[in-house]
Structures are given as C-alpha cells and as structure tokens.
Write a structure and sequence with these properties.
CATH superfamily of the largest domain: Type I PLP-dependent aspartate aminotransferase-like (Major domain)
Number of strands: 18
Radius of gyration: 22 Å
Oligomer: single chain
Low-confidence stretches: 1-19
CATH class of the largest domain: Alpha Beta
Length: about 400
C-alpha cells in the first residue's frame, strides 16, 4: 500500500485501491500504534503489507489462540456467512444453545450469557452479583473486592474494578463500587469485607498487570472466605482462560471453582465474542429484562466459538499445549540466565508467560520488532509472550533465538 507523509503536520497517508489518500488521523488517537500494517496471517505468522513475516507472540493479546487463518475456523465462518449473520435474541439461536452446553459441560457452570467482549462479560458478571443479593432483599450489597494491578476492561465500571491510575485518569468521578486489596493477600481481602460486600473478583493469572499467578492456597482461601460471608466468587478468565494456561480454564489447576466467570479473547479465535458463565444459584435472578445484548451470541460469533471448541476439546490438544509450555519455559529460563543484564526472570503459567526486565520493557518489544517478532508489554516492566497455542517446536526455538538476539543488542 503506497504511503506519503506530511511532516509539517506529522501525518502519515495511505492510498486506497481507488487512489484516495487516507490519513491515520481519521482514526481516534487512543493507541500508540507501531508503524506496521499487516495484510494477512498464516498460523503463527503475520505478514506485512510489504511482505515481511513476523513471528506473532502477541496473538492479538491472547486472542488468536489457534493462530491466523486456521482452516477449521475459516470454513466454519464461511459456511455461516453464506446462511445468515444476525438475528435478534428475541428468537432461539441454535449456535448459542450448542456453545452454552459445551462450555457448561467443560466447566463448573450451569448457564451462560453471550456478549461481544471481555468488558461486556465482566459487566454481566458484576450485574449478576448485584442482582443475586438485591433480588433477595439485600439491597445494601453492591461492593466488590478486587485486586491491585488488575485489569478488567475499559468501561467506566471495569476501569474502576481494575483501579489502575493510568486507566482512571480523566474519567472522574470513579464508579464507587470496588475495594482494592493486594493481589495474593488473603488477610487483606478478609479485612476488606463489610456488610456492603457482594462479591470478590480476581484474575487467576493477571495479564496486563504483570503475569502474577494466584496460588492454589490463595484461591482456596478466597473460596472459603466467600462461602463464610455469603459472597459470590468471580473469576476473570478473559485472558487466562481457553487453554492459555494449559487447561481449558485456569481455575482447573487449583480445583477451586467460582460462582461466576468471564470469558472472551480466545473464545472466538479472533472473532469478537464474550461469555459470562455462572452457576444456576448465582444467576437465578437474571430473568428476562435484566440484561441483554443486540449482537451478543450472533450466529457468526457462535460459529467461530464452536469451531474453536472443536479444536480445543479434541483429544491431545491440551497435552500438546502443556508440552509446548514446558519447552518454552525451559528455554526462557536459559535465556534469562545468559542475558541477566536485560532480563530478571520468567513469570506466568502455560503459554501465558512474561519476562521481567531490567531494561524498559518497551525497548525489548521494539528490539524484537527489529527481529521480526511481535510481543506486548505488561505492568511491572514485563514483556508478555502470548503465542498461538498451536505453534510448533521449531517456532519455539526460533522465538528463543530472536529473544536472545534482541537481548544481545540491548545489553550493548
């Protein structure tokens, strides 16, 4: 795609197929975008408009879990696109019923609500928790205990739930419904419980916050605390769910199930879809009129998500993810040991890993772009590594070579 630049105004122009100039200023400036334009994807690779190949260890921030242009997903979407794309939730949608049952069979849940994103899934979770208490006459219960450095979305409610200053700046007044405590500190969580507390919300693995992993004892303690005080336990598995940690859901390792769970990102393999899963008790008061979504659960999204489950629920898929994660983790440990002036250590679980850096994490991401590898920053000066769950052993080795090359440049 030919480009031009107006240096006086700092604008970059792209030329459409019709020859019309298009300015990057046309898109709202809410992202600090890297000057890369991708044209297509193949498995673990993205190919730029000038035909350069980049090893994708960003995966759309844990979205493209099956890589790019996975043939089964492409076929499922093409098949559904030739039938119909949308119909109202005033009618039954076969794909929703199929997907809901499959998610229920694979999890703790009894029911599912479908939406379009992780933030919407969290909004549904928050509403479900409030409704659970207030429909039973406990109108004072609306507050939710959340963890420091959390990320739950970009709506007014979910930035308040996350509580990070960088996300709240300029959006006052902050939605007053969340009490933040240190992640992993059960004593602080218990001390935060009041008569107004309705639920506890936590990421089993913090993504944007820096790849901190909740211990089994911490999740067991939160479950016991919720039961003791009559609270609901909510998991945000928007990023860490759907196979990312080596299990279909991150909570499975601890054996501690929540009452409500938010999913999105990898659920659609790249197609926008979210889900709020819940037990029948937690969701018993979510009756007609209490919640809804125009596009949530549309036939295209359901076709994509069901195709994702076809792959992820197949025999041997999660075992392969676990094998790949061990190989990558071992290689990263060696990488840190041989580049200890650049990297401090490895964090995370499964194929949701992070490198804690001594140098600015943005510098590492930039150096890796020069090596034709894509990654993404996280909090606490961490670089996230979120490769497709389908990557090969050869691609793992290549990624480690690129990481080492970038580190050698940064160490100079």
């Amino acid at each position: 795609m030919p480009r031009g630049q107006d240096s006086a105004r700092g604008l970059v122009f792209y030329e459409s197929e019709e020859g019309q100039a298009m300015s990057t200023q046309a898109v709202m400036s809410t992202y600090a975008r890297t000057d890369l334009v991708f044209e297509r994807g193949e498995g673990s690779w993205l190919i730029s408009a000038n035909d350069q190949r980049f090893l994708d260890f960003n995966s759309g921030i844990a979205v493209n879990a099956l890589g790019h242009a996975h043939p089964h997903l492409v076929e499922a979407l093409q098949d559904q696109a030739g039938k119909f794309w949308h119909c109202s939730n005033l009618y039954r949608i076969d794909g929703q019923e199929k997907l809901a049952q499959r998610l229920i069979d694979a999890s703790f849940a009894d029911t599912a609500f479908f939406c379009n994103s992780g933030a919407e899934a969290l909004e549904c979770a928050i509403k479900t928790a409030r409704r659970y208490h207030q429909a039973g006459g406990r109108y004072e219960k609306y507050r939710i205990i959340t963890a420091d450095n959390a990320f739950h979305g970009r709506t007014l409610a979910t930035i308040a739930a996350g509580g990070q200053a960088k996300h709240l700046d300029g959006f006052a007044p902050v939605v007053d419904a969340f009490d933040h405590v240190p992640f992993g500190n059960l004593n602080e969580a218990r001390a935060a419980v009041t008569e107004e507390t309705a639920a506890v919300l936590v990421e089993p693995v913090q993504g944007e916050g820096g790849l901190a992993v909740a211990t089994d004892d911490y999740l067991k303690g939160l479950r016991a605390m919720a039961d003791e005080f009559g609270l609901l336990l909510i998991y945000d598995e928007v990023q860490c769910g759907m196979g990312r940690t080596g299990n279909m859901f991150a909570y499975e390792k601890s054996g501690v199930a929540p009452d409500i769970m938010a999913l999105a990102k990898a659920l659609g393999g790249g197609f926008p879809v979210g889900a709020c899963l819940a037990t029948s008790e937690a969701a018993e008061h979510m009756v007609p009129g209490t919640h809804g979504s125009t596009f949530g659960g549309n036939p295209l999204a359901m076709a994509a998500a069901n195709a994702v489950l076809d792959v992820m629920l197949a025999e041997g898929f999660m075992a392969r993810v676990q094998t790949a994660s061990k190989k990558l983790r071992s290689g990263l440990d060696d990488l840190v040991a041989s580049n200890d002036s650049v990297f401090e250590g490895v964090r995370g679980r499964g194929l949701m890993l992070g490198l804690k850096c001594h140098v600015p994490n943005g510098d590492v991401v930039s150096a890796l772009i020069h090596e034709h590898m894509l990654t993404v920053v996280a909090g606490d000066n961490v670089v996230r590594l979120l490769p497709p769950l389908t990557m090969s052993d050869e691609e793992i080795e290549l990624a480690l070579e690129k990481l080492d090359a970038a580190a050698k440049v940064l160490a100079v």
